[in-house]
């Protein structure tokens, strides 16, 4: 007699007797946090029906355990690593397991181990032909959830390849240099909804959108892929020993073009209901990150901070091949960092974003810090508030990911050294700064001033919100509209 399906499933999971393996909290937290940023597995509603193999479920629970403060994730890490290393499986599920595991290990602050795990995922993926256009449809109907999951897995490999290589100044790209054959993922609402997956669109169609007579909107995942491609170009350029200035201008043109060709529906990362488009958040973040990486090494901010050799600080082999002078590069790098801080202020729950946002946040804070040193103290508050915003986000994230702990400590140490004197001067004379004594009217002047009519204070708004003292309003540094075409995020 054949046992019921549930009993077969239980029997298959029996070797993993650890209670944490069966903890539904880990699965739920994985989907509520990590999966939102890296949505390659089937949607949560179909997870149990999919019956993923045990090793992949182990990885899912391992990642979810990081979001439980009391869990001992290091013990789980060793179990998962041992299971993956000795398992001979060469299926797409193993690719997904190694991929998810590598991102988690990267976020834990173990870059070399993460690179090794990622390489295993790429090796199996290329062996299976997951980079080929026909792979997803060869196992399942093209419009099925499983086929969509396969497409997303390849593109997540493509994106992870670039971000994983960013801190390794000499590492080679494994996926991002291949021809983009695989069809593009669909919109998140279609993937998680009850409707059928639409027929996937090709990368060539996405590239041709710039010549369309009418505005064409593609899924958010597509813009994230293109943004990552531009980031890869910036990283490659910084590693070249010699290049023509037109090569630098080409990357700059790509950054500006990406923004100019965004449809109006993709300009914002938060809709009117407060829902965050995580794929567009990552896309915007990636473009700003690429802009910082491109311009910072060529700016006059490079030598300001004493810890400029930090792992999050980019380097370039040559700085002179540019049509711009160093101050303009500084302005563009600072503007890009401002864009990241503005975006994170809209959705500051960093643990729900990709761990790849951590290096971008660290670099954002370092640039704001360097700019605060370079600029006059009139705009000290402006940069100080952005630095403290980033510090706060990293502080909350370091409880989950070790990489954020390293970024937090690096930025905190640099900020403490660089801003100490400015903070002391700012705090010792706050009243004189906000209420200058030489501008206070004398009793005679007050007597001669006209009395405000009673009707003028009848408005409740005047009573509840008195005139704001200008000293409480942070000054801006400059009008940056000339240097960027990216509209401000609507935070009003």
From TrEMBL:
Record GO terms (molecular function): DNA binding; zinc ion binding
Compositionally biased residues, Polar residues: 437-456
The keyword Cell cycle appears for this protein: no
Keyword list, A-Z: Nucleus
InterPro entries found in the cross-reference section: XnlR_reg_dom (IPR007219)
Database matches in Pfam families: Fungal_trans (PF04082)
UniProt GO BP: DNA-templated transcription
Region spans: Disordered: 435-456
Domain Xylanolytic transcriptional activator regulatory, residue spans: 27-194
PANTHER family per UniProt: ZN(II)2CYS6 TRANSCRIPTION FACTOR (EUROFUNG) (PTHR47431:SF2), ZN(II)2CYS6 TRANSCRIPTION FACTOR (EUROFUNG)-RELATED (PTHR47431)
Protein name (record): Xylanolytic transcriptional activator regulatory domain-containing protein
Species per Swiss-Prot/TrEMBL record: Penicillium cinerascens
Lineage: Eukaryota, Fungi, Dikarya, Ascomycota, Pezizomycotina
């Amino acid at each position: 007699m054949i046992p019921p399906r549930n009993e077969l499933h239980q029997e298959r999971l029996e070797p993993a007797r650890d209670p944490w393996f069966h903890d539904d909290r880990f699965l739920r937290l994985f989907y509520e946090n990590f999966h939102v940023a890296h949505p390659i597995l089937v949607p949560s509603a179909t997870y149990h029906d999919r019956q993923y193999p045990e090793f992949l479920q182990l990885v899912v629970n391992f990642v979810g355990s990081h979001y439980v403060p009391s869990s001992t994730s290091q013990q789980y890490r060793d179990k998962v690593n041992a299971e993956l290393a000795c398992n001979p499986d060469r299926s797409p599920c193993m690719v997904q397991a190694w991929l998810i595991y590598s991102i988690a290990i990267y976020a834990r602050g173990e870059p070399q181990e993460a690179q090794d795990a990622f390489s295993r995922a790429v090796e199996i993926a290329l062996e299976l032909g997951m980079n080929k256009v026909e792979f997803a449809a060869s196992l399942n109907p093209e419009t099925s959830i499983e086929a969509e999951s396969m497409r997303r897995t390849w593109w997540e490999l493509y994106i992870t390849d670039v971000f994983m290589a960013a801190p390794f100044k000499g590492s080679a790209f494994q996926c991002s240099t291949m021809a983009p054959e695989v069809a593009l993922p669909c919109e998140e609402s279609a993937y998680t909804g009850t409707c059928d997956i639409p027929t996937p669109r090709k990368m060539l169609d996405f590239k041709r959108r710039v010549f369309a007579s009418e505005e064409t909107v593609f899924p958010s995942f597509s813009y994230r892929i293109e943004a990552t491609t531009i980031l890869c170009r910036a990283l490659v350029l910084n590693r070249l020993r010699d290049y023509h200035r037109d090569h630098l201008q080409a990357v700059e043109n790509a950054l500006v073009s990406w923004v100019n060709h965004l449809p109006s529906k993709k300009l914002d990362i938060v809709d009117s209901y407060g829902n965050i488009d995580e794929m567009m958040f990552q896309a915007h973040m990636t473009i700003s990150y690429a802009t910082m990486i491109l311009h910072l090494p060529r700016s006059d901010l490079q030598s300001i901070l004493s810890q400029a050799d930090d792992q999050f600080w980019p380097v370039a082999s040559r700085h002179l091949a540019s049509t711009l002078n160093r101050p303009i590069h500084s302005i563009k790098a600072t503007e890009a960092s401002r864009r990241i801080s503005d975006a994170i202020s809209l959705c500051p729950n960093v643990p729900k974003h990709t761990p790849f946002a951590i290096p971008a946040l660290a670099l954002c804070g370092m640039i704001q810090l360097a700019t605060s040193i370079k600029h006059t103290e009139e705009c000290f508050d402006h940069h100080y508030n952005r630095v403290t915003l980033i510090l706060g986000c990293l502080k909350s994230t370091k409880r989950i990911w070790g990489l954020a702990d390293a970024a937090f400590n690096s930025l905190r140490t640099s900020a403490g050294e660089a801003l100490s004197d400015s903070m002391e001067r700012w705090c010792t004379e706050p009243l004189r700064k906000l209420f200058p004594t030489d501008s206070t009217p004398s009793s005679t002047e007050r007597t001669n001033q006209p009395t405000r009519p009673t009707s003028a204070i009848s408005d409740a708004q005047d009573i509840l919100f008195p005139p704001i003292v200008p000293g409480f309003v942070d000054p801006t540094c400059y009008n940056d509209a000339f240097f960027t075409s990216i509209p401000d995020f609507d935070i009003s």
